[in-house]
Amino acid sequence: MSDILAVADHRRGELRDVSYEIITAGRELADQTGGELHLVIISGTVDEFAEKANRDGVDVIHTVDHGEEFNHDVYTQAISQLYDECGPQFVLAPNSVNGLDYAPAVANELDLPIVTDTVGLESDGETLVANREMYGGKVETTVEVDSGPAVATIRSAEWPTAEGTGDASIEAFDADIDEDAVGSSVNGFEEVGGGDVDISEADVLVSVGRGIEEEENLDIIRDLADALDATLSSSRPIVDNGWLPKNRQVGQSGKVVTPDVYIAIGISGAVQHVAGMKGSDTIVAINTDENAPIMDIADYAIYDDLFDVVPALTEEFQ
Amino acid sequence: MATHETMMKILVTVKEVATVEDEFDIDGTAIADQYLGADLNEWDDYAIEEAVQLQEDGVADEVVTVTIGPEDCEQTIRQALAKGADRAIRVWDDSLEGVDLLDVGAKTDILRAVVEEEDPDLVLSGVQSGDDSFGATGVSLAADLGLQWGAVVNDLEHDFEDGTASVRRELEGGVEELTNIELPAVLTIQTGINEPRYASLRGIRQAQRKELDVQSLADLGVDEGVVEGDLTLTGMFEPETESDVTVFEGGADNTAGQLADLLREKGVAP
Ligand SMILES: Cc1cc2nc3c(=O)[nH]c(=O)nc-3n(C[C@H](O)[C@H](O)[C@H](O)COP(=O)(O)OP(=O)(O)OC[C@H]3O[C@@H](n4cnc5c(N)ncnc54)[C@H](O)[C@@H]3O)c2cc1C
Ligand SMILES: Nc1ncnc2c1ncn2[C@@H]1O[C@H](COP(=O)(O)O)[C@@H](O)[C@H]1O
Known about the structure:
The complex is a heterodimer.
Chain A: E1 4-7, E2 10-11, E3 14-15, H1 18-33, E4 37-42, H2 46-53, E5 60-64, H3 72-86, E6 90-94, H4 99-110, E7 114-123, E8 128-134, E9 139-145, E10 150-154, E11 169-172, E12 184-191, E13 204-208, H5 218-228, E14 231-234, H6 236-240, E15 261-265, H7 271-274, E16 282-286, E17 300-302, H8 306-316
Parallel strand pairs in A: 1-4, 1-6, 4-5, 5-11, 6-10, 7-10, 13-14, 13-15, 15-16, 16-17
Antiparallel strand pairs in A: 2-3, 7-8, 8-9
Helix pairs in contact in A: 3-4, 5-8
Chain B: E1 8-13, E2 16-20, E3 26-27, E4 30-31, E5 36-40, H1 42-56, E6 60-68, H2 74-82, E7 87-91, H3 104-118, E8 122-126, H4 137-145, E9 148-156, E10 164-170, E11 175-182, E12 185-189, H5 201-209, E13 212-215, H6 217-220, E14 231-237, E15 246-247, H7 252-265
Parallel strand pairs in B: 1-6, 1-8, 6-7, 7-13, 8-12, 9-12
Antiparallel strand pairs in B: 2-5, 3-4, 9-10, 10-11
Bound molecules: flavin-adenine dinucleotide (FAD) and adenosine monophosphate.
């Protein structure tokens, strides 16, 4: 047992980027364990997906042709059966919303330890050592998993995407899915966050986070956005509180934005936020906390109280 | 499990999370105590609110919370009682003292015993805990108990026709999945699903009189060995950064001036 079994992620007919990243992560690990990298693609147009995912580093691609869209019971059953058949050392799944909907169940079903949201993985062939963050990204930890097989989920955008054309063998896996055990069904999808503004079109974004404290205080951010002729956006808590509509939310579950200038005000820079704005040309952060994770990607920073800095900045443009 | 024509019983898993001050020191594999604070896990706050609303809507008749945590966290648990939960269970044991990182498997084993004892129709947990951020306990618990589940739920319809929960799962990129899930089930609740209330003074007073039942692992029939878990925290450090951030220094007027110059340089605003 030294192989790696990685699970691809897709939605509504598209393989998601993390599927290519998990190939890189899986290949690195397989090189360390001295085994093969197996990739499994479950549901959807599996043959087409298999062709796309056949990149450098993959040894075997297993396809499970069952249903169109993601269903966690189907995934859990298919992965568990494939695990029993292939006997890999480690199972890798994406730390996506769907990954978190089946990976813990797979670990439970197979009675394996699980370590989630990893940003680094290493193994001597027996033991898995993972790096992961805690406390909203304030610290990174090293976690050793008990010797033996384990399940790990990988954070997206931490490993580069695998490139090149691979020569994996593509094998249809005939999973025996027990339909009676499938207790949930998907009735459709809905896009949310439409409306009057499209923040992903903006050249300059003034973006506000929980540091603003109260809804009334948003006025000082609006004034700044007006003075700069910029568009207002925010982190998730502002939208959760109902202070701004969903279409203003930047991040993993909101919009991905790539403005010329992104001004993050009172935003800590949680990974799910950064996923939506790290492609901005110039990032400015205004935050009292010098250690906030946003500083890792900021180009310019002011370590000070936003209630002092923002009005002063607005005044500069009036 | 109860039939769904009758009123539902809801169990909410509630965690007190550790918060960290802006400036802190790491002491071995932990953040030094003096920099740590405590708070109700943000995601669980939304789960509590959803449960209390189900009760107010006449769908649920009992809301029970369960927490694995030391005596210190009772104040946090009482917040849930003050917001409307009926009673609380706190699981603690000498064997849990000093455990650095209670992993998903260990939490599952402990919480399973409570679910078996309480026999709820619906278990609400948070998507993740703000400190450990495993994001896995709810789904693991469901799988272990043979219940159904749904992860990252940001909408729940309050009529459970045919014993089914109609939910929305929040996927990436502003896409929501509309899903039906058979009960009994565990749902992991995402922030924004509702507006968590503040506890009223009356609620806070009442909470003092509500039942908070403390159980040991032995009481639950859980083997002490489970707390060992499968994960060992072997290192903690401040993340390395490739940051080459330019910091504007001085008072607010000064820094605002420097930033204004930069923005003009970048062609922002007149
Ligand atoms: C599945 C999932 C999906 C998610 N999707 C998203 C998403 O799409 N977008 C998103 O943003 N988040 C998302 N999140 C939430 C994310 O994990 C964080 O909780 C969130 O981004 C934090 O927002 P924040 O930075 O505004 O708040 P906090 O993390 O609370 O940060 C507030 C910051 O303000 C600073 N501050 C406080 N007072 C002041 C002051 N007076 N002056 C200056 N600075 C001050 C603090 O130092 C702190 O850094 C998601 C989470 C999950 C689990
Ligand atoms: N110690 C605990 N006691 C009670 N519930 C917990 C505990 N740890 C985690 N949970 C629940 O599981 C959810 C997910 O936590 P985690 O998997 O640790 O990120 C939390 O939002 C809680 O609802």
